Amino acid sequence: MVLDYLNEALVQLQLDPHQVVIVTDIGCSGLSDQYFNTNAFHGLHGRAITYGTGLKLANPELKVIVVMGDGGCGIGGHHLLNAARRNIGLTVLVLNNFNYGMTGGQHSVTTPHGGITSTTQTGNLEQPLDIAQTAAINGASFVVRTTVFNKELPHLIAHAIRHEGFSLLDIWELCAAYYVPNNAFNRKSLEESISNLGFRSGIIREDEREEYTQCYRRLKSAEEERRSLQPQPLKPRFSATLGHPVRIVIAGSAGQKVVSSAAILGTAAVLSGLWATKRDDYPVTVMTGHSVSEVIVSPNEIFYTGIERPDILLALAPEGIMVAKRQLEALTPKSTLYIKRDLLPIETKARVVPLDLSRVPRKEIAVAGIGAMLYHSDLLSQEALKEAARIIQPAEIALQTVSTLEKSPTLIAP
Questions:
Q1: What is the pLDDT of residues 13-46, one digit of tens each?
Q2: Where is 157: in which H helix or E strand?
Q3: Structure pTM?
């Protein structure tokens, strides 16, 4: 219901979808962004407001809408407090159903005193957190508490999105999976709970206070803004004849410098007048496990950054191949698999190009593999790749990278 109301609000506002970002974390509300034709960011539980803050700081022109649950408010309570007191220009929709509905109905920070949950089977001993008043008293400039049954909710959401400062709507709703059956809870109970708990409803606070990201930029000198906040575009210096998007997956392991090498590839694409995106996947362990980067290069703007079926897969280690298994299986006869020779044989429908990387140091394997792939595919020039290394790497490391790239044509195995 809240998503329907949010949709009504966005239709009402007629915002450019490219200027809207919906941020979610874990929980029953965690997949909300996939139903909207806007930008989206999905992250860790309780951190949605943090991601939203970063997006707003990076680009104050964006309308950043955070959709999260009471569980996320509890886990990330300090993020809520700090975004409110700073008056960061976010619109936070809290889908408050009084328990962790996705993971089995455990009690949350908003479970009413006496509430029955899977972790408070004799009744919750704690007093519930008043999310709305907490945000309001700590500086949020537009705060509402209401229920999902309020027909004015689309208009309230639209008002919150228009508001320049930190807006929070504490929206009480029914968890039909756990809280409703455990507590004989219904719409009437929901609405009565607000007054029974002594909580205010409706618009709790609305005032005009300068929004943080706008104030921050206003107070910066022109030189500081130029140096620290404004984008520094890379001017194209090389040519590319690419006429369609190319989706590349680099599947390696920790220590092969996969992520930094993929950054060089993306930068080389931009230097060649192309659009580029990069997505990385690696575990929290240090120097062990997989390291996979997905790079898309395209002559046109890229709106979807996922790669289900790669055009090129560069396989450098068993750990990376395991993580990229679905993408490997999705390769077609039109795809190309560049693979470290000692990882053969491998089952694939793609054209296979072995790479002899046996004498390449571990930390240079990824950039060597990318260099060989580009030399063989003629996707980008080697000179663009070398210049990208010089731009983003310290001089001494860039010198080694350029030396490695100069040897890459010899790495195509027979």
A1: 999 999 999 999 999 999 899 999 999 999 999 9
A2: helix 153-162
A3: 0.71
Name the residue range of residue 37's domain: 2-215
Residue 279 has a CB neighbour count (10 Å cut-off) of 14
* Judgement on whether residues 143 and 285 belong to the same structural domain of the protein: no
As given in the structure block, the two tokens for residue 128 are 């519930």
| 42 and 104 together in one domain | yes
Residues whose CB is less than 8 angstroms from the CB of residue 29 and which lie 6 or more positions away in sequence, other chains included:
2, 67, 68, 69, 95
Cα distances (Å, whole numbers) of residue 57 to 44, 89, 157, 230, 303:
19, 9, 22, 11, 21
Helix, strand and coil content of the chain, in percent to the nearest 5, comes to 40, 20, 40
**What's the rounded Cα separation, in Å, for the pair 405 and 409?**
8
CA distance 131 to 384: 52
Those residues with Cβ within 8 angstroms of residue 263's Cβ, 6 or more apart along the chain or in another chain: 278, 392
Residues 6+ apart with CB under 8 A from 378: none
- What's the CA gap between 132 and 300, in Å, rounded? 44
Residue 346 falls inside a structural domain: yes
Question: Tokens standing for 179?
Answer: 């809280």
